[in-house]
Amino acid sequence: MATVADAQLNPTARERLFFFVMALAIAATVVSGFSLQLAMHRSTFAAPWWVHIHGLTFMGWLGIYLTQNWLAWRGDIVKHQRVGRVAAGYVGWMVLVGLSVNTLAAIHHRIPPFFETNVFLVMDWLTVLVFAGLTWAAVRLRGRTDWHRRLMLCGAIQVMTPGIGRLLPLPLMGSWQLWGIWAVLLPFIGAAAIYDIRTRGKIHPAYLIGFGTITLAVALMRPLAFTPPMLALTRYLVG
After folding, report:
1. pTM for the complete prediction?
2. Which residues of 154-179 are buried (b: 16+ CB within 10 A; e: fewer)?
3. pLDDT in tens, 174-190
């Protein structure tokens, strides 16, 4: 089992430890966002069953991501690979749940009033699709560990969006809501970039591709939300 002392001497163990710590930070941030809303009585367990399915599904992914990084840190690569095969299929379930539940939220008028419905839908749909794309790309490149770890991290950073949104004063941010959430992602990718500079001498291109994709998606969200087809779809869904 890799220890902190080993990580100080062994570059491989040190990198595994870094990604495990990042996974812990991501999970803690997301849990904090949802816990804050519960503590402030803005969220309730008295929600439709499909809302609970959505929450359990995405919290389940956090558990899987933590487990995978813990197994890698321990050096248990065989179990890591076994869980990885399940996780790759689980992402497909997340896409199905994410796209359908957010659509149901529009139909049943459960979208937060401080969000424009069309913007909320595009934001959530693109978030889920970008997450899945980055994660599946990481799975495809699992033989190249440096790319695999970093693209997985980018996917995990992207899927933090719902938790971060619950930590921010979104009702006060107007049309800057999307970029406000994006700004909170920056310290996470920044920490990863700094780690690369200190240990590798440069930022790995996986971060440029991964976070570049996230940034492009954010830039496109509002323009896509106000296209005639999206406005028509929104009117159809909300009745």
Report:
1. 0.91
2. bbbbbbbbbbbbbbeebeeeeeebbe
3. 999 999 999 999 999 99
